[in-house]
Amino acid sequence: MYLEDYLNRFGDKKIKLFVDMDGVIADYEFGAAQDYDKKRPLIDSIEKLEIVSEIPNVEMFIFSATRYSSGLAQKHWWLDTYAPFFEKENRIIISREDNEMRDSSLLKAEYLANYERDGSILILIDDDPKNLKDVRKMNEDVILLKDTVLVDDTAHKLKLEINTGSNSKTFVKKI
């Protein structure tokens, strides 16, 4: 299934969407690992996520890791520059340096395992199969999506019924 399918399937239920940065919205193969000023933005994915950010029942989070604490400021700068619709308070960036250089996939899995469940549907978009595998081991309730759900041509429209009080309208945007 694609992100669009899940958004349609869950209708107006509260969704918390966790989005990895490297490989999903930033080209991690472009520039050195810690040189975020040189990372190329993946424009198609960013534009689609900006559309999703406008859906009232979807709360989006950046969910990323960095090797060193110095990368925190760089990642925030990159987001401010290329994807400012990710609110600062919804940017979860974990420093491996601050966590005894533990594996980022385990840090992400543990974070989600300890994340307070409030009845929302939790969805993670990540490009790294190891991250997805480790998150699955500790979080059976989290829906896991590979980054290709954002760029696949078959997921070309986002069509949802959004209830706005007494008014109901169809929200259609090309993604």
What can you tell me about this protein's structure?
With 175 residues, the protein is of the alpha/beta class. It has one domain: 3-Layer(aba) Sandwich (Rossmann fold), CATH 3.40.50.1000. Helix content is 30%, strand content 28%. The chain contains five helices and nine strands, in the order H-E-E-E-H-E-H-E-H-E-H-E-E-E. It has helices at residues 3-10, 43-52, 70-82, 104-114, 129-138, and strands spanning 15-19, 26-27, 40-41, 58-66, 91-95, 121-126, 143-146, 157-164, 167-174. The strands form three sheets. The protein has a five-stranded parallel sheet, with helices on both faces. Helix 4 (104-114) runs parallel beside helix 5. The radius of gyration is 16 Å and the shape is globular.
Relevant terms:
175 residues, alpha/beta, Rossmann fold, five-stranded parallel beta sheet, two-stranded antiparallel sheet, 5 helices, 28% strand, globular, disordered C terminus
Helix fraction bin: 25-40%
**N→C terminal distance:** 15 Å
Shape: globular
Cα-atom Rg, whole angstroms? 16 Å
CATH topology: Rossmann fold
Q: What's the SSE pattern?
A: HEEEHEHEHEHEEE
What is the compact description of this entry?
The chain is of the alpha/beta class and 175 residues long.
Secondary-structure map with pairings?
Blueprint: H1 3-10, E1 15-19, E2 26-27, E3 40-41, H2 43-52, E4 58-66, H3 70-82, E5 91-95, H4 104-114, E6 121-126, H5 129-138, E7 143-146, E8 157-164, E9 167-174
Parallel strand pairs: 1-4, 1-6, 4-5, 6-7
Antiparallel strand pairs: 2-3, 8-9
Helix pairs in contact: 4-5
